Amino acid sequence: MSHTLAANQFAHHHRGGTSSKVIQHETDKLLESINNRDADYVREHIKKRIPALEDLITEMDDATVIEFVSQFEKIVKSPPTRNPSTNISTIKKDDTTNNDCTKEPQEEKVELDTERVAFRLDGIELYALVVSLTAGFGFSSLEMISDEEFEQLGFPLTWIFMVTAALTVLSGLYATIVFSLCSMYAKTAIGSNRDQQMLEFLKNTGIYRIRAFHHFLISIACFALNVLIICLVKFGKSRFGKLCFLVCGWLLYEGWRDTQGILSAAAPIFAPLPQSSDDSKDKKNNSEATKSTSQINTNKSSKTAFRLNIFNRR
């Protein structure tokens, strides 16, 4: 058996030990003995680790033992060889796992609660239904007052009536078209099994629905003013007519005040959901875990550098 082969066996036994701390301690003592040219300790150490080399070590002289362990030192410094087929298989496995990770987002399908989506779309359709009624009543109100009655109203009320009627119709048409299109295209996407596209559509058209809701409120408010002016014209300027005008005005104010209260109460429904405490705890734990992992890696790198310096002392 050659010295190099024996050194390879001895290095293999050192790498396959049960405890890295024990191996490091024995290796440090062995290198210290090499530096001190203590061949007896080196010989006893090798006999203890590999009994099969006892005869070979016994026959060696001191210089040969030191040379033998010097070869062992070079083998320990070199990285262990691996089976190329194992590397190829692991690379293939990594590639497949990476491909699977990249394919997952593409193959994911958004599972929607169709009942909840139906409720949401029904709410949009209700906006379109109500505002279409006000737009229709606003257009028909133009025919409810004759030219003679317009002359009795005078200039300011006549123009107020015309402007409010026009705003009722135009704002109502805008809101009706927007809400109807949003509901129609969302239902078309669901029917075509395009749930993700439906969510993207609702997200991208959110600003238009907000504008349509503002027009919805404008149309209703103008329609209420329109009805108030019609009551004033039809009942005349008598005491009963003035009383009806005041009652209608008070009802208009009550409706506006209650509408603002309902909108304020509905604000939390459309507010973003708060982050749960469990999510915040998970994020905190993840950040702490990453910090501790980085500290462990730095400690490992410093220990590895220290060991390399020990091997290079000679």
Your description of this structure?
The structure is a single chain. It is built from 13 helices and no strands. It is mainly α. It has two domains: 3-77, no CATH class; 114-268. Helix 9 runs antiparallel to helix 10 (195-204) and helix 9 (155-191) runs antiparallel to helix 11 (206-235). The model is unreliable at 14-19, 79-98, 100-108 and 303-314 (pLDDT under 50).
What does the secondary structure layout of this molecule look like, with pairings?
Elements: H1 3-15, H2 20-35, H3 39-49, H4 54-59, H5 62-77, H6 84-107, H7 114-141, H8 147-153, H9 155-191, H10 195-204, H11 206-235, H12 239-270, H13 277-311
Helix pairs in contact: 1-5, 3-5, 7-9, 7-11, 9-10, 9-11, 11-12
* Poorly predicted regions: 14-19, 79-98, 100-108, 303-314
Query: Could you give the distance between the termini?
Result: 27 Å
What is the number of strand segments? 0
Q: What is the CA-based Rg, rounded? A: 44 Å
| Mean pLDDT over the full residue set | 71
Helix run count:
13
Please report which band the strand proportion falls in: under 5%, 5-15%, 15-25%, 25-35%, 35-45% or over 45%: under 5%
Q: What key attributes describe this structure?
A:
314 residues; mainly alpha; 13 helices; 84% helix; rod-shaped; disordered C terminus
In short:
Keywords: Membrane, Transmembrane, Transmembrane helix. With 314 residues, this protein is mainly alpha-helical.
